[in-house]
Amino acid sequence: MSAVHPEELLRAVAALPSLPGVYRYYDAAGALLYVGKARDLKKRVSSYFQKTHDGTRIGHMVAKIARLETTIVRSEAEALLLENNLIKTQQPRYNILFRDDKSYPYLRISASTWVADAPDAGTVPGRPNPDHYPRVSYYRGAVDRRHQYFGPYPSAWAVKETIQLLQKVFRLRTCEDTVFAHRTRPCLLYQIKRCSGPCVGLIAPADYAADVRAASAFLNGESQSVLAELEARMFAHAERLAFEQAAEVRNQITALSRVLHQQAMESVDDQDVDILAVRVQGGRACVNLAMVRGGRHLGDRAFFPAHVEDGAALADLDSPGTPEQRVLEAFLAQHYTQVPPPPVLVLGAPVDESLLEAITEQSGVRVRAVFHPREQRRLWLEMAQQNADLQLARLLAEEGSQQARTRALAEALGLPADTPEALAALRIECFDISHTAGEATMASCVVYDGHQMQPAQYRRYAIEGITPGDDYAAMRQVLQRRYGRLAAALADAGGDAAGGMAGRAVPAAAKGEARLPDIVLIDGGVGQVNVAREVFESLGLDIGRLVGVEKGEGRKVGLEELVFADGREKVYLGADSAALMLVAQIRDEAHRFAITGMRARRAKARTGGSRLEDIPGVGPKRRARLLARFGGVRGVAAASVEDLAGVEGISWELAEAIYRALHG
Asked: Mean pLDDT lowest for which of 34-43, 271-280, 469-478, 616-625?
């Protein structure tokens, strides 16, 4: 095995010290293959090159190794943390990788500036100050220490359900400060007893502050102390003969008691616990994470790692154990480097104690694992395990269906479909044009690869310099922009497009461009396909890759036909064809992506929304969130800095920058 590796690599392996550290393997093209940790770098790395791994996944990876990099650390715990930070950021091919593109939602109670016996300096006479009445809200994004945050929660639904509970029991406000500041009478939430009406002064700041303290204590699991405090407040009101206020507090006690009774069957003395169940089957894995916060079970969330088969095989050398153990360890290491862990983890499989020590060191929270839970914890773990089984079964069924669709389309078009690898390598790019009577023309390109859509590789193209409404000119422009540089790079590399360049690596000159796909789908009939053929012929690319999706008679769904640029007869796949289902899925995604881009561009042109996009740090996504939250540019301009910072992805510093930009 060692004879196939460069001498420089073997010398580097021989010179490694017997110290803890992290090692990284690269192939000849510089791509990162694998990241591993070791208590003894010399012993661990040498094992890859001294043993025979022929015919195994390990051997397949080892044969590609051309370069080695190592980092010495002080302890195995440090090695573990560095290893998983590199896995998360570099995404190597042969590591188990958990991708989580969503931040966790929190419940936020905003800060209050009210101080007892202090004058209301910033208050408009006769109008309550919103800063004196904290707001409860759903929140994602960076944490500002001035406010209170509770969570994280496994889903948006769990946060919103908790907010509704707080409204019923403590009647805290949920309205934006801009709404609060302009109310002249209480809203419907007050009428249905979900808010105490602070916007029109129907509750004193001191009483509202007491409700906020009680809500915070409840979210922290201090239910009995909350009940005791409410009872004391009720009796105090009664002694002052303030019977209406006493009745209000009595209603709070009744509502809270009802909630606690409903939760009695699922609550124990645990305050914060995470329950993790894992299932590995068919080369895929699912980790189901259930969360208990403040003694309340908040629901669960499923995670599906990539590279399970390759990563588990290589992990045999680094951390012997069952596939379930290795997947669970990978999840713990990657997840809890970004999310604060609770003090107790209930696990469906045992993990290395050094991993728990590393998480404790990283987070500052002493983490304890329970592998054989009893009573309520056992029921929670069983429920989490059942959900992991169901989620993995659903994933395998969906992937099987999607692979069947890919196979059907490949066979219909005469493309290689004899091996799973050939099917997984099938790449399709689809184009669509969208505009409104020629205004704001936008072209989209979506990508299907590895049996699934690849949103990270989608691209939009703003079409300029054409006659408004000329779809043919728009298609010609987008194809030239998409494939022009790639065609030039392939020609410089001596490639023949007609000879099947789809499988070849893209030369360095074309880095950042998509590789030439196996199929280029055009959402259109003969006219659009002819335009695409002209572009491909001028670029020296294979026109056999071009396939148009032509509407059938009456433009009815299921009657579409495939049109080919190389002269083949049209093909009708059949309304129930798996191949047509895949074509329709990709085409509809291209249409959706084009029309959303066109609408955003049109709205920007019509509303002058570029005022927001001109602000550094405010891109299309943040602008869309701001406009959705406040209903338009005027609403954004009327919002306070705190309101702006409450929008997902808007930090306090950026909120201040937006406010300054919109107010001159």
From this structure: 616-625
Answer yes or no: same fold for 273-394 and 420-601. Answer: yes
Measured distance CA(580)–CA(574) in Å, rounded: 7
d(CA 169, CA 251): 8
Q: How far does Cα 538 stand from its chain's mean position?
A: 40
Express each pLDDT in 135-167 by its tens digit.
999 888 777 778 888 878 888 888 888 888 888
Secondary structure class of 150 (helix, strand, coil):
strand
**Helical segments of 170-219, H only:** 177-181, 188-191, 205-219
From 510, 565, 499, 563, select the one nearest 537 (Cα to Cα): 565
Residue type, position 136, single letter:
V
Alpha-carbon distance 216 to 109, whole Å?
8
Nearest by Cα to 486 from 467, 463, 459: 459
Structure-token pair, residue 480 = 């030239």
Q: CA-CA distances (angstroms) from residue 55 to 1, 240, 312, 628?
A: 12, 85, 16, 55
Question: CA 203 to CA 197: how far, in whole Å?
Answer: 7
Q: How many CB atoms lie within 10 A of CB 555?
A: 9
- The residue ranges of every structural domain in the chain are 2-90, 106-118+125-220, 273-394, 420-601, 608-662
Residues 273-394, CATH architecture? 2-Layer Sandwich (3.30)
Return the structure tokens found at 519: 């199929």
**How far apart (Å, rounded) are the C-alpha atoms in residues 254 and 243?**
16
